[in-house]
Amino acid sequence: MIDIVIGVIATFGALFVLFAAIGLVRMPDTYLRISVTTKAATLGVGLVLMASTVYFSNADVTSQAFVIILFLFLTAPVSAHLIGRASYFIGVKLWDKSVMDDLRGKYQKNTHVLKSVVDDTPEDNVDHTKMEDK
Q1: Per-residue pLDDT tens for 6-46?
Q2: DSSP class of residue 102?
Q3: Beta partners for 125?
Q4: Is 101 helix (H, G, I), strand (E, B) or coil?
């Protein structure tokens, strides 16, 4: 019975890692790729580590796996956010079919200030619609 539980958890983990890899290839822009890989890969690796804790049922392995899972769940979203923000600030273009750009008019490229409202100095703001492809 425990082998079935381990197999199911590990299979779901491997599927989520596979979905992250497929999403990395199929998504059209950097921002969607970051989103897909962060969510799916983190969940997939977490499930594989959970399967390892069930398989070994050892306190050492379990504690190490939980520390790794905690580390992944804390650092993956933060690093994805920082990579996405840096990509936006250096001018990586959004996908052509993106519906909205939440930061349009809020980031000043010369001072590197991000405002919570649209700024009234448009010449200083980053506008991804006017950027050439990189």
Answers
A1: 999 999 999 999 999 999 999 998 888 999 999 999 999 99
A2: T
A3: 108
A4: coil
Q: What is the mean pLDDT of the chain?
A: 85
| In the chain, domain spans | 2-95, 100-134
Tokens of 61: 């392995």
Six token digits for residue 10 = 């590990």
Q: Are 13 and 48 in contact (CB under 8 A)?
A: yes
Closest CA to 66 of 41, 38, 42, 46: 46
**pLDDT for residue 48 is more than 90:** yes
What is the C-alpha to C-alpha distance for residues 51 and 12, in angstroms, rounded to an integer? 10
Structure tokens belonging to residue 22? 């497929």
d(CA 134, CA 132): 6
Element (H, E) at 114: strand 113-114
Look at residue 126 in the predicted model and tell me its pLDDT.
Answer: 57
